[in-house]
What we know:
The complex is a heterodimer of chains A (about 60) and B (about 400).
Chain A: H1 7-15, H2 19-34, E1 41-47, E2 53-59
Parallel strand pairs in A: 1-2
Helix pairs in contact in A: 1-2
Chain B: H1 15-20, E1 27-31, H2 52-55, H3 62-79, E2 83-89, H4 98-112, E3 117-124, H5 131-140, E4 142-147, H6 152-158, H7 168-177, H8 181-186, E5 187-193, H9 200-208, E6 215-218, H10 238-252, H11 254-257, H12 262-271, E7 288-291, E8 296-298, E9 312-316, H13 322-326, H14 329-332, H15 343-346, H16 351-354, H17 377-391
Parallel strand pairs in B: 1-2, 1-7, 2-3, 3-4, 4-5, 5-6
Antiparallel strand pairs in B: 7-8, 8-9
Amino acid sequence: MTKKIDQNVLAELEESKNEVLKRVSEKLKSQLQEGVVVCGSHSSHSSSPAGRTHSSSTSGH
Amino acid sequence: MTKLGEYNTPFKPSPGNYYLMTHLIDSLLVKVHSRCNLMCDYCYEYNSGNTSWRSKPKEMSKDVYEQMLVRVKEHCDCHQVKEMFFSFHGGEPLLRQPDWYRYAITKARTVLEPNTSVSFGMQSNGTLLTMEWVELLHELNIGYGISIDGPKETHDKYRVHSNGDPSFDLTMDGLRLLLTPKGRSIWGGVLSVIDVDSDPVEVFEFLAQFNPPSIDFLEPHGSWGDLPSGKTSYQDLTYGQWLIRLFNFWFDHPDYSKIPIRKFDEIIEHCYGGRGSLESLGLEPVTLVTVATDGMVESVDCIKAAHPNAHYLGMNIYENTFDDIVDHPMIKLRQIGMDALDQVCKNCEHVLICGGGYFAHRYDPSDDSFSHRTIYCEDLKLLIGHIRRRLGR
């Protein structure tokens, strides 16, 4: 597989009735519009950074 | 400038990638307090054999914080970084006094804006959250992530005070404050560490009843020399099976799938060619570093779960710029994508999605190196293969 967002597939996702696929399509669309490579956030964080998020983090940007 | 070869992690960067890599840091994990009021069994800070926290200042001083801002500004101005994110982390960040956050936010904005916009979040255990804190975080626009592992029995199994007392009731007191309008406005999400003895659907349904903005389920940390609880061998698929059961329930129930599960959303995004935003998946460069309370810089804090000195770069924000820091091999390893992976990963059909798995889980003490597959490789292959089949990708 290659890493490329397919416009036709994206259009299908946007029409999907599945909440997850619709949500992902929004992210993909914004990435296509931005056209830049951004990186990853810490996993220990849950407050949503714009870059690459720490996994131990979920708190937001 | 750090020289290759001074470190124990052997890797051969491809010159093309290595030298042309954009030097960029746009997220900092800021360790504002090095202590915690809990002592969770699986904690990478206090229960992984690393004792560096004992010799660190309890709190990051204003001097360290302001020097960090000097380095951040220097970096942002040099590389035209337009957005910077600070995640206040610990320990437990709510052990700091509220006034410190007023100072920290004001100072950061004064130093960095208008050239660079800066946003803030924190990850907390929830036990010290009060309505006064919620109002302050709302006023300062600091996002708040709470760590809770599930219903009482699951949560209290590992998330305890140092005397062994459970923390669930206190965490729930904090979580309920996030259900108020101001609480909702700051709530970024939930982090849950997976207990494979729990029922994934029960855990998810418990968390979903609060309608959090997002949930992530994290595998406990471990290495090739120290497999985590519930993983009896490298081939053991218990975590993968737990996650697949959760995925099927979530993906097939519209009322539930409206709540993002970060790990699943990210895998799906990668499956469709997206870049993802989480450091533990994908091959995209990681642009995050950790600054400890004494100003020392770590590649990523949880790497100390691999071995006690894994986080040590020998660099600090007084003597080093962020350009020095991104040149460090341990930082570079997380920015060079495929070149950091072993041949098995390079040949794997899922490599663009998993990216070799979380860096902190790749350490093998037999050669003192992170150039290995994650210990969760078989689980990830099972999960990603399942998701790809469900998506027809």
